[in-house]
Inverse folding.
């Protein structure tokens, strides 16, 4: 039983789905109807904008909706990570899990697949269905779909970041009294911002992966109530880091001249800022893999009960 056997893995997966199907189904339905409900509410708000004869570029825009959907997906991954070892939440579940004829690797792999990867699959399907519903409602009410963004493309690509970039460029031009005559022209500042936005998208998804794996690791420490405890811990760490960053920024701004940092140095830093974001994202991915491995090691050493999980 030291190797990974697909038939044994399938039997364990079938057993777990039979025992915990209501739990997995309820989580999937909550996520599905939350995403679809947000899109339907967004369509209602766009319809109100359409009724007051606003420009089509406003009521056809789904940038804000995409951002909200991404946030919902983000928290769904965190909850899924915190539920990876949900069958072990009570003593009877741990006894049943230990007596199942499957290796620790097979069992833990299934827990991660059904929770984390399952949340990803449900999210993708939910966004696809919500996008189709939005398209059909747009055809029925607006009588055409011209100019309406695809929610699916906006969520799973850099379209949202590009939309934010275009909005920022237009606002900057408007505030400075500049008329954009050539929409294909990209200034050096816009090119830098575009690279930063693309790198930010990568770093954001890498951060979500890392945080999800951390929730899974905390679930290996405590099977019940781990999600709220993990959230409180992360908020506390974030608050402390925020204070330290504020102190660092105050110190940095008051010592700029002494450090010899001029405009040329800052310009070079901004031009290469996307590289730092890619490095940060890569570190987050490696840390996430490490948390999953650490959680698996704790899973292999799990006892029927201990002082954390009595």
């Amino acid at each position: 039983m030291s190797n990974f056997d697909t038939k044994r893995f399938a039997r364990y997966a079938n057993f777990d789905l039979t025992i915990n199907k209501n739990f997995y189904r309820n989580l999937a339905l909550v996520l599905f109807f939350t995403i679809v409900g947000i899109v339907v509410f967004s369509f209602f708000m766009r319809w109100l904008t359409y009724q007051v004869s606003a420009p089509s570029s406003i009521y056809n825009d789904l940038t804000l909706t995409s951002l909200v959907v991404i946030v919902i997906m983000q928290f769904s991954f965190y909850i899924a990570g915190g539920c990876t070892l949900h069958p072990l939440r009570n003593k009877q579940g741990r006894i049943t899990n230990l007596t199942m004829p499957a290796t620790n690797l097979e069992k833990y792999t299934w827990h991660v697949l059904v929770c984390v990867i399952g949340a990803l699959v449900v999210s993708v399907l939910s966004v696809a269905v919500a996008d189709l519903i939005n398209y059909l409602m747009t055809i029925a009410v607006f009588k055409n779909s011209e100019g309406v963004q695809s929610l699916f493309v906006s969520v799973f690509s850099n379209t949202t970041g590009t939309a934010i970039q275009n909005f920022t460029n237009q606002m900057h031009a408007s505030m400075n009294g500049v008329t954009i005559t050539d929409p294909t022209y990209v200034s050096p500042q816009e090119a830098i911002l575009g690279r930063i936005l693309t790198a930010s998208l990568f770093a954001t998804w890498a951060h979500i992966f890392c945080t999800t794996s951390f929730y899974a690791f905390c679930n290996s420490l405590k099977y019940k109530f781990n999600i709220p405890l993990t959230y409180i811990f992360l908020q506390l760490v974030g608050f402390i880091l925020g204070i330290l960053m504020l102190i660092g920024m105050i110190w940095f701004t008051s010592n700029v001249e002494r450090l010899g940092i001029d405009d040329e140095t800052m310009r070079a830093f901004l031009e290469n800022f996307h590289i730092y974001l890619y490095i940060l994202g890569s570190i987050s991915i490696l840390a996430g893999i490490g948390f999953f491995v650490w959680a698996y090691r704790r899973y292999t050493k799990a006892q029927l009960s201990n002082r954390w999980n009595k």
About this structure: The chain has twelve helices and no strands.
